[in-house]
Amino acid sequence: MSFLMVCRSLFRFFVKKLNLDSTKIIDWFILILSTVSPVLASKVIFYIVMDKKLDLNSPKTLNEKIMWLKLNTYKNNPLITQCTDKVKVRDYIKSAGLEHILVPLYNVWDNVNDLCWDDLPDSFVLKCNHGCGYNIICPDKSKLDAQWAKKQLAVWMKTKYWRYRAEINYRHVPQRILSEKYLTMENGESLNDYKVYCFNGQAKYVLVCTGRSENNPKFYFFDNNWELSRINRHSQAADSSFSLPKPAHVDNMFKYAAILSKPFPFVRMDFYITGKDLFFGEMTFTPSAGIDSSRLPETDLMFGEMVNLNNDDCN
Hints:
The protein is of the alpha+beta class. Among the domains are: 3-55, no CATH class; 104-183, no CATH class. The chain is 34% helix and 18% strand. The chain has helices at 3-18, 22-36, 38-50, 62-71, 78-84, 89-95, 146-158, 233-237, 250-261, 297-305, and strands at residues 105-109, 124-128, 135-138, 177-180, 193-199, 202-210, 218-223, 228-229, 266-273, 278-284. The strands form 2 sheets. Strands 8-7-6-5-9-10 form a 6-stranded antiparallel sheet. α2 packs antiparallel against α3 and α4 (62-71) crosses α10. It starts with a helix and ends in a 10-residue tail after the last helix.
């Protein structure tokens, strides 16, 4: 029996014996372990979620290679830190001559107490730059509970996001708050987001989410010719004639994703299309923290085969 299997058995025994909250214990344990040893933390997280050992010696799947990259190529890499930072990545986009796809920026603050609500427009988005999901979307400032928003931002600003899943590419991002323009479709509907999977500078697939405003989200993969790729469950379950109308700017989206992703073995480039405009969202180097258990095993392997871990541009 392996060391990880022994640890899991002991953990389950004590959780059941002492009637403990296993989720909170795991989170607490990972927070500590990430600081002590990101490698060991990654192995433990991978084993808990994926129910198998993490192979860092000969990684094959995309999940395994994301883990390898964050612990090696992306570790303490200034360009990775810059592009992970939701504020400083804007300079990277500008350096590529693509400033026109940046969401208009209103302000940046180092401290939540510096935020002046009166200076913000009637609609906006607030984000913390050092993690994922740290967003406050405000379509109408008159309806926003400013005290709640301030408290929430204060909590996020005190949180070391990288420690939750040992995502050390976030570790050296200086924590700040930014305010951006609130984007909507031209007809007022909520935005569809487009997540472009890029492998060594080649933008291969885009993951499109539909039905989010109806609380019935479905995800479909399309290739760079806008052909449905049946490589995830929703795409496989779709009718044989299923497709989605090709949005404007899709060709440019793939083009820009390829330009911006060139230095990196793998990155997911996120974009928004409002109808008439294409906007850059963010660069995600460790989607799902490298433990995406919902990805089909054959797709995880196929994506992994596309990643060259010896990309000289990033080393």
